[in-house]
What does this fold into?
Amino acid sequence: MPTPPPRQTTPPAIKSRKGGQPIVCITSYTASMTKLVDPLVDLILVGDSLAMTIYGMPSTVGVTLDMMIAHGKAVARSASHACVVVDLPFGSYEQSPAQAFHSAARVLSETGCSAVKLEGGAEMAETIRFLAHRGVPVMAHIGLTPQSINALGGYGVRGRAESESVSIMADAVAVAGAGAFSVVIEKTAEPLSREITAAIDIPTIGIGASAACDGQILVVDDVLGLFTEFRPKFVRRYAELASQIGPAVSEYAADVRAGRFPGPEHVYGD
Ligand code: KIV
It folds into this structure.
């Protein structure tokens, strides 16, 4: 079992940032990426978006607890500054608070991360309370909840219709009251995200939920432009790495084929 490395940023420290300087969050799934982003951000999420970014799956529904633990270990052992949060995958927590505790305890003890994230609002409040009272810091996730894609029928914007906005507000109040230390609000209309941020006393972390939130999170592959085919409106790309990878690998291939690589400087002599 790993000894959790002392990380500078804890879940209570994230909670205390409510209303202060915006909280910077990003996903990471590997040790190498974590070492690069850790000094620059406040929170790293080992998101179940690894379904698409790492495994080429069509949605997050097929992600397993073992997959999350494997990537959680790689990230947690590579971060010394940012708070590391690992997603509980679909099917590992919804059945009962006891099931959620069992899964969360495995994630915390086997990876050395600092907290778990789970999707759901008012219906998960009892579970969040159960976990929070037993030493498991919980980040909630409301608005668009991708693990429910089969029930939702699509990844559309949430919180535009009056009835939906009332229910998402109730979700926010419920998860905050249950003891979540922060809440992700995904792909939700700006006026509602603003109202929620003003109404609850824990930080709101937006992804497609406007600058009104207390912090922002993006998928690292989106920030770096590693996908060519997927450009959601809520993403700003800060690099276009996909367009650099093709030319780099093609130059390498051409050098190998022409005998230009390895050169004398890459060879071990006697
Ligand atoms: O899985 C993930 O990466 C997430 C973020 C998009 C918030 O849940």
Remarks:
- The two ends are 43 Å apart (CA to CA).
- The chain has a mean pLDDT of 96.
- DSSP finds eleven helices and eight strands in the chain.
- The first helix runs from residue 11 to 15.
